[in-house]
Design brief:
Blueprint: H1 6-16, E1 21-23, H2 30-42, E2 49-51, E3 66-71, E4 78-83, E5 86-97, H3 101-104, E6 110-116, E7 131-137, E8 155-157, E9 172-174, E10 176-178, E11 183-190, E12 193-201, E13 205-206, E14 210-214, E15 221-226, E16 232-234, H4 238-248
Parallel strand pairs: 11-16
Antiparallel strand pairs: 1-3, 2-5, 3-4, 4-5, 6-7, 8-9, 10-13, 11-12, 12-14, 14-15, 15-16
């Protein structure tokens, strides 16, 4: 006779087979849903996955769209779930996987891969909301190309990418987000506040690059670091500071 828990786990696994999301109409237990997601992603029996340090009566709740599931912290030991557009709904569940020795030997090695959340067009500059980390077979094409989301954020796509596809190194490049002679939003932070203005970029800039800018009213030249949103954070590069101190001495 089947235990009363096993059918629910089977149903959750079946529903997750189409992707890393759980229908918003289901109000499954948070622990049970996390176990089902991890088992499906890792290709292991649901019975071998166990949520750690969590009240199993805690409900997943409802979401206006669909719950978004992913592995967090660049590992397969923590599952993250959130309702898109609602940061306060984000929850983390630590998991452990225990497999018999003979079964473990048959499970293919996995690695973390950066995967597109949805279809993305050519030239799109990636943000952390465009991609997710997902466990993939280590021998799968493209797996292991990027092991963290930070490694692709700010890069632009060299071709259209379908949702669920693994991003390879040939799929992205550093993209120019600031054009020469364009008017950009420049800002700086200081103790107790933040100031912003519009400046003219004197050259093109990619995310993370330092460029020169000019105040169109005063003609004053400034330098700043290009941000992923196309704005420029004003300041002085650390290597410039070191050089200045050396000259002072």
């Amino acid at each position: 006779m089947l235990s009363p828990i096993r059918p629910c786990r089977w149903l959750a696994t079946l529903l997750l087979a189409g992707g890393a999301s759980l229908g918003h109409t289901l109000e499954k237990g948070l622990a049970e849903s996390a176990e089902a997601f991890a088992a499906k992603s890792l290709g292991v029996p649901v019975s071998s996955v166990r949520a750690q340090s969590i009240d199993r009566r805690q409900r997943l709740g409802t979401c206006a769209s669909e719950w978004l599931w992913r592995f967090a912290f660049e590992s397969t030991q923590t599952v993250q779930v959130e309702c898109p557009g609602e940061p306060k709904s984000r929850r983390f569940v630590a998991i452990s996987v225990a497999l018999p020795r003979d079964t473990a030997a048959a499970i293919p090695a996995t690695t973390m891969a950066v995967v597109a959340e949805r279809d993305l067009p050519y030239g799109h500059v990636l943000t952390d909301g465009d991609v997710r980390l997902e466990a993939r077979r280590a021998d799968a094409p493209g797996s292991g190309a990027f092991g963290s989301i930070d490694s692709v954020v700010g890069r632009s796509l060299t071709r259209p990418i379908m949702g669920g596809s693994t991003l390879g190194r040939a799929d992205v490049r550093l993209g120019t987000v600031v054009k020469r002679n364009s008017l950009v939003h420049a800002w700086t932070e200081f103790s107790g506040g933040r100031a912003a203005t519009k400046l003219i970029a004197l050259g093109p800039g990619k995310v993370g690059e330092w460029i020169e800018l000019e105040n169109p009213q005063s003609g004053r030249k400034l330098r700043g670091e290009v941000q992923i949103d196309g704005s420029v954070r004003l300041g002085v590069r650390e290597d410039t500071k070191v050089a200045s101190r050396a000259v002072d001495y």
